[in-house]
Design goal:
Number of strands: 0
C-alpha cells in the first residue's frame, strides 16, 4: 500500500508532498524506500542526486537501484551519476553506471571521464572501464596495468578484466592471461560470478589458447572442463596448449583430461600435435611422450619411437620410459641402438637400459648391446662411462645372461683400465664364480687402483672362499680406495677370520672414510676383540667414525662398553653421534643408563636426540621414566618426539604388567 502511495505521488512538487516523501526515505521496508526515492527523483531534478545517494548509502538496498535512479534522468544527472558511483563498493552498480554513461551523448561527461584518467585510485579505473570500449588507448592501457598489478585489490582487477572482455581490444588476450595466472583471483571471481568466469574461459579458448601458457591450476581446471564438455573442434591444438603450460600441476591436470577422452580420439589428437610441434621448442612434447605411455599397446609405439630420437633429450627420455612401460618387443632394436650409442647423452642411455630391463627381450641383440654398454666401443681409447657400465652390469645379472661371462673374462686382459674395471664389476654382478681366480689375480697384480678396487668389490659377490678371503684381507694394506672396497666385501661376507686383518688395518693411519668402512665391517663380524679400539675411536675419531663406532658397539653387543657409552651420552656434542650412542645403549639394554637417557630426553637442541632417548627408555625405563615420558608426550612441541613418548609409555606399561593404567591417562597429565 505504501509503495502504491509513493508511486501515486510521483511528479508532484508541493512542499507537503516533498516533505512526506522525504520522511518516507526512513521507511523500514527497503522496497518502500526505493519507491519513495523514485518518486522524489521524478518530482524534482534538484532532489534526484540526494535521493540516489540515499539509496547508494542504504546497505539494505542494492546499489544498482541508486544507479538506475540516476540513469533515469541522465540528461540532468551525467556528472552526478559519475560522481556518485566512483566510491561504490558494488561492482554491479559501477558496471551499470558505465553502461548508462556510454549511452549519454554528453560531451561534458566524456571530457570529465578523460580528465579522470589522470587521477589516482578508483576514479581513474572507473573512467577507463567507461572509455575503453570507445577505443581510448590510454584507458585500455590503464585497465591492463591494473589487472597485472598484484598489489591491486582482487575486486578492482576483476572489474577491469570484465571491461577488457567487453571492449575486445588487441590486448584483451594478454589481460585474460594475467587473470588466469593468478589462482586466487580466478577462484574469487568464480565464486562471485560464475557466468563472468565462464566468459573468461570462452575468451581463453577464442584466443587460440595463448592465455594458457601462463595459466595456473585453478584456471586450467576451468579450461579443461570446457574442453571435456565441448570437445573443441581444434582438439589437438587445445591439448597442446594444455600440456605446454608452465605450471607442472596444471600440465598433469591437462594430461588427465587427455586420457579421459578415449584411446582413438586421444591418439589422433596427439599424433597431429606431434606433427605440428615436433620442431617447436615452445611446446613441451615430453608431456606428450609421458601420456602416450598409457597407449603403447593401442598404437602409440610409432609416435613414441619418433619422439625417442627427438632433438630435445628430455622429450627423448620420457619417450623411452614410455616405451619400456608398453612391453612391446618391437621397440628393442631402437633401444639397443640408443643404449650402445656412446655419443648419446647418459640420461638417454640409462633410460634405454631401464626400458630394456622392463621389456626383457629374448633376441640375441640384447647381449651385444649390453656388452657394448659394459665394455665400450672397441675403437674407443678411453672406455665406458661409469654410470652406464654399472647399470648395464645389473641388467646382465637380471637377465642371467651367462653367455656374457666369457667375453667379460677376456676383457679383464684389455689394455684399457676402464674396460678391465667395468668387466670386473659386471662379473661381480653376474656372480660368475668361474672368474674367481681371474679377479684375485687382478686384485693382486693390476697396476691401476680403479681396477683393483672393482675386483675387490666383485669378489665380495662371489661368496667366501679361503682364496678370496685371503686376497681381500691382503688388500686391506693396499691404497685407501682398494682398502675401503676390500673392507666392504669382507663385511658383506661376514667371515670371522677376517677380524684380525680388519683390526690391523684400523691400527694404521687411514682416511676417515676408510676408518668408517673398517669399523662397519668389524660391527658386521661382531668382533669382540675390536671393542677397545672402537671405544678409542668413539672419543678420538671424526664424527662419522664416532657414530659408526657407537653403532658397531651396539651390534657387537659389548656389555663392557656400557659405562663408556653411558658417559658419552652426556659429553658428545654432535647430535647424530649422540643419537647413535643412545641407540647402542638400547641394543645393550644397559639399565644403568636410565638417568643419562632421562637427561637426554630433555635436550632442548635436538629432537632426534630426545626421540632416541624416549625410545630407549621405553625398553629399559622404570616408574620414574614413565612420569617423564608422560610429561614429554603432552609437552614436547615436536610431534615425532611426543608420539615416540606415547609409544614408549605403552611399551613400558606392558613390560611392567600395569593393566590398570588409569594413573597415566591424559586427564591426570593435564591436571
Amino acid at each position: 500500500m505504501r509503495i502504491l502511495a509513493a508511486q501515486a505521488l510521483s511528479g508532484r512538487t508541493s512542499p507537503a508532498v516533498i516533505g512526506g516523501l522525504t520522511r518516507g526515505l526512513g521507511d523500514p521496508t527497503p522496497e518502500v524506500r526505493v519507491a519513495v526515492a523514485q518518486a522524489l527523483a521524478s518530482s524534482s531534478a534538484n532532489l534526484l542526486r540526494g535521493a540516489a545517494e540515499t539509496l547508494l548509502n542504504d546497505s539494505a538496498v542494492p546499489a544498482v537501484s541508486g544507479v538506475e535512479l540516476l540513469g533515469s534522468m541522465m540528461s540532468a544527472a551525467g556528472l552526478a551519476l559519475w560522481q556518485s558511483i566512483t566510491d561504490s563498493g558494488d561492482p554491479k552498480a559501477r558496471t551499470r553506471a558505465a553502461e548508462i554513461i556510454l549511452g549519454m551523448p554528453h560531451e561534458q561527461t566524456l571530457a570529465f571521464l578523460r580528465d579522470a584518467l589522470d587521477a589516482d585510485g578508483p576514479e581513474a579505473v572507473t573512467a577507463a572501464c567507461v572509455l575503453a570500449p570507445l577505443g581510448d588507448d590510454r584507458a585500455t592501457d590503464l585497465l591492463f596495468f591494473t589487472i597485472a598489478d598484484d598489489a591491486a585489490s582482487d575486486e578492482a582487477r576483476r572489474f577491469c578484466a570484465r571491461a577488457m572482455l567487453d571492449c575486445r581490444t588487441p590486448t584483451t588476450s594478454h589481460a585474460v592471461a594475467e587473470v588466469l595466472r593468478d589462482d586466487r583471483l580466478v577462484l574469487a571471481w568464480h565464486s562471485e560470478d560464475s557466468v563472468a568466469t565462464a566468459d573468461l574461459v570462452d575468451d581463453a579458448v577464442a584466443s587460440d589458447y595463448a592465455p594458457l601458457r601462463s595459466a595456473g591450476s585453478a584456471a586450467l581446471d576451468l579450461i579443461v572442463g570446457h574442453i571435456e564438455q565441448t570437445h573443441d573442434d581444434d582438439l589437438e591444438h587445445a591439448l597442446g596448449a594444455l600440456i605446454s603450460v608452465a605450471d607442472h600441476d596444471a600440465r598433469v591436470r591437462g594430461g588427465q583430461a587427455i586420457l579421459a577422452l578415449g584411446a582413438d580420439e586421444t591418439l589422433d589428437a596427439l599424433a597431429e600435435l606431434v606433427d605440428e610441434h615436433f620442431d617447436d621448442p615452445a611446446v613441451q612434447l615430453a608431456e606428450v611422450a609421458s601420456i602416450l605411455g598409457e597407449f603403447v599397446g593401442q598404437g602409440a609405439l610409432p609416435i613414441l619411437l619418433r619422439l625417442a630420437v627427438h632433438g630435445d633429450w628430455y622429450t627423448g627420455q620420457f619417450a623411452i620410459q614410455s616405451i619400456g612401460k608398453g612391453g612391446d618387443p618391437a621397440a628393442a632394436p631402437l633401444l639397443y641402438k640408443i643404449a650402445s650409442d656412446e655419443e648419446a647423452r647418459p640420461e638417454l642411455r640409462r633410460a634405454a637400459l631401464l626400458a630394456i630391463a622392463r621389456l626383457r627381450p629374448q633376441d640375441g641383440g640384447v647381449l651385444e648391446a649390453l656388452l657394448i654398454c659394459v665394455l665400450g666401443d672397441p675403437g674407443d681409447s678411453v672406455g665406458p662411462d661409469e654410470p652406464i657400465y654399472r647399470l648395464a652390469g645389473r641388467v646382465l645379472a637380471e637377465f642371467k645372461l651367462s653367455e656374457a661371462v666369457d667375453p667379460l673374462r677376456d676383457a679383464l686382459a684389455d689394455d684399457r683400465p676402464a674396460v678391465r674395471r667395468s668387466a670386473a664389476w659386471a662379473l661381480g654382478e653376474l656372480a660368475a664364480v668361474e672368474s674367481l681366480s681371474d679377479l684375485i689375480t687382478l686384485l693382486e697384480h693390476d697396476d691401476e687402483v680403479v681396477v683393483r678396487q672393482a675386483s675387490a668389490w666383485a669378489l665380495g659377490r662371489l661368496g667366501a672362499t679361503d682364496e678370496s678371503v685371503s686376497a681381500l684381507s691382503a688388500a686391506l694394506g693396499d691404497e685407501p680406495p682398494v682398502c675401503d672396497q676390500a673392507a666392504l666385501s669382507l663385511g658383506m661376507l661376514r667371515v670371522e677370520d677376517a677380524g684380525q686383518a680388519l683390526r690391523l688395518a684400523l691400527d694404521k693411519p687411514q682416511p676417515g672414510y676408510v676408518q668408517d668402512r673398517l669399523v662397519w665391517a668389524l660391527g658386521e663380524l661382531k668382533d669382540e676383540a675390536a671393542v677397545a679400539e672402537l671405544l678409542r675411536l668413539l672419543v678420538a675419531g671424526e664424527s662419522v667414525v664416532r657414530r659408526r663406532s657407537a653403532e658397531a658397539l651396539g651390534r657387537i653387543g659389548a656389555s663392557a662398553a656400557g659405562p663408556d657409552l653411558c658417559k658419552r651420552v652426556g659429553v658428545e656434542t654432535d647430535p647424530e653421534v649422540r643419537t647413535a650412542v643412545i641407540h647402542a645403549l638400547g641394543e645393550l639394554a644397559w639399565v644403568d643408563a636410565k638417568r643419562s637417557l632421562e637427561r637426554a630426553a630433555r635436550d632442548t637442541q635436538s629432537p632426534a636426540v630426545r626421540r632416541a632417548a624416549v625410545q630407549v627408555l621405553g625398553r629399559i625405563g622404570d616408574d620414574d621414566s614413565l612420569r617423564l615420558l608422560q610429561t614429554i608426550a603432552h609437552a614436547d612441541r615436536d610431534v615425532t618426539v611426543s608420539d615416540a613418548a606415547r609409544a614408549a609409555m605403552a611399551r613400558l606399561l606392558d613390560q611392567h604388567a600395569l593393566r590398570d593404567d588409569s594413573d597415566w591417562d591424559d586427564g591426570e597429565a593435564a591436571a
